[in-house]
Amino acid sequence: MRIERAELREMPLRLREYFEISSGGKQDRRILLLTLTGDGMEGWGECVVGEDPGYSSETTETAWHVLTDFILPRIVGRDAVGPEDVLTPVSWIRGHRMAKACVEMASWDLAARMDGVSLAQKLGGTRTRVPVGVSVGLQKSDALLHEQVARYVDAGYSRVKIKIKPGRDVEMLAGLREHFPDVPLMADANSAYSLADADRLEKLDALDLMMIEQPLSYDDFLEHARLQDRLRTPICLDESIESVGDLQLALELGSCRIVNIKPGRVGGHGTSRRLHDLMKDRELPVWCGGMLESGIGRAHNVALASLEGFVLPGDISASRRYWERDVVSPEFEVEDGHMCVPDGVGIGVEPDLERIESLTVRRARFDGGA
Ligand code: OSB
Ligand code: MG
Questions:
Q1: Which residues line ligand 1 (CB under 6 A)?
Q2: What is the four-CA torsion angle of 34, 304, 339, 8, rounded to 10 degrees?
Q3: Based on the domain organization, do 178 and 31 belong to the same domain?
Q4: Is 163 a catalytic residue?
Q5: Which is the catalytic residue, given 26, 100, 122, 163?
Q6: What is the residue range of 141's domain?
């Protein structure tokens, strides 16, 4: 495959609701969209990077910088065997996985279109619909939390994930469990604790949670293993797993029993599939995480989640859970706790180009020349 042109755009998009995690909150997203052109077709990708370096060390600005100054000029106008090979000319660049991932993922969409198949098919997905959950941010009060959870339970989500931090954890979740005795619940701390908090985290074992996501710091592999030894509840790693090597280390040490795979965090669909395979070989479950993406990023997540080993509900919620209006049609919907995997060619949903153009505040174009 030959990538003849690339266009990177920044598009502000306001979340319907303020979203807060242990490291901070946001309402306004700065979405980066990438279009790769080849053979008269367009592949779409979204960079999942956050506005601040609270979740990963990358930010919107570092991703823009690395994409426009280093990655895109080097991949445009070159031939690649396939999507897994597109980043070869920039394999010397350390880190910046989110910046790299959006190029790799747009290449997968482009490659699927060139083959005339859906992205899910191209990735080897087998499911036609995937179980989905919702992620609920930190709320100002328990009453507001209960209201939110009730709303999502009514909307039929397969499980509800609750953000926690010190001071908003055991008592808050115990109250919630009392109100919702049968709802599949899990908690995500986004690294807000240390091993010194193990006594407190042990109390979560009484609440029948599906898992506790990323309680400790991203590089606390050993500490997560020590904590997992003390907990009955499975630990799920998110921020810690950026590569196959990270997962091998985590499995060797016993740092987790579940992994949240976000293609944007690990450098793309290629590594996502390798992580999925590694977990499946050990009969351990994975699920697809989310980064408050627009419909473009969500389409990639749904396609990935159609692979066999994604047995747990993903953070892949309906378009309306995030946005007044999404930038793809049709918008993503949840029915009966599931989301349909688009079966059209490529990502299988249509980017609303006119709307995306009107929202664009920054743009960079790269041409392969003659
Ligand atoms: O830790 O999974 C996380 C959003 C931004 C950054 C990190 C996380 C999240 C979410 C939201 O939990 C998931 C979604 O997109 O619905
Ligand atoms: Mg998480």
A1: 21, 55, 135, 188, 190, 238, 289-292, 315, 317
A2: 0
A3: no
A4: yes
A5: 163
A6: 122-340
* pTM tops 0.85: yes
CA distance 358 to 370: 30
214 and 358 housed in the same domain:
no
Q: What is the 345 CA–ligand 2 centroid distance (Å)?
A: 30
How far does the centroid of ligand 1 lie from the alpha carbon of residue 291, in Å?
5
Note the pLDDT of residue 369: 59
Kindly state whether residue 93 falls inside one of the protein's structural domains.
Answer: yes
Cβ 60 vs Cβ 99: under 8 Å: no
The reply to whether 75 falls in a domain is: yes
Nearest CA to ligand 1 atom 9: 291
Total domains present in the chain: 2
Are residues 11 and 147 both part of a single domain? no
- Measured in Å, residue 122 CA sits from the centre of ligand 1 at 26
| The predicted structure's pLDDT at residue 368 | 79
Q: Of the ligands numbered here, which is closest to the C-alpha atom of 238?
A: 2
Could you tell me the CATH number of the domain that includes residue 87?
Answer: 3.30.390.10
Bridge-partner residues for 136, per DSSP?
Answer: 162
- Where is 121: in which H helix or E strand? helix 119-123
Q: Whose CA is nearest to atom 4 of ligand 1?
A: 291
pLDDT digits (tens, 9 = 90+) for 52-74: 999 999 999 999 999 999 999 99
- Distance from C-alpha of 210 to C-alpha of 204, rounded to nearest angstrom: 11
The answer to whether residues 283 and 334 belong to one domain is yes
Q: What residues are neighbours of ligand 2 (ion), with CB under 5 Å?
A: 188, 213, 238
Q: Is residue 346 part of a domain?
A: no
Q: Which residue puts its alpha carbon closest to atom 1 of ligand 1?
A: 190
Q: Closest ligand 1 atom, CA of 161?
A: 12
For residues 105 and 165, membership in a common domain is answered with: no
Alpha helix (H) ranges present in 133-281?
A: 142-154, 170-179, 198-202, 221-230, 244-253, 263-266, 269-281
Q: What sign results for the dihedral spanned by CA atoms 107, 110, 116, 119?
A: positive
Do 109 and 132 fall within a single domain? no
The verdict on 227 and 297 lying in the same domain is yes
Strands (E), 41-97: 41-47
> What's 149's domain CATH number?
3.20.20.120
In this structure, is residue 347 part of a structural domain?
no
For 230-265, the pLDDT digits (tens) are 999 999 999 999 999 999 999 999 999 999 999 999
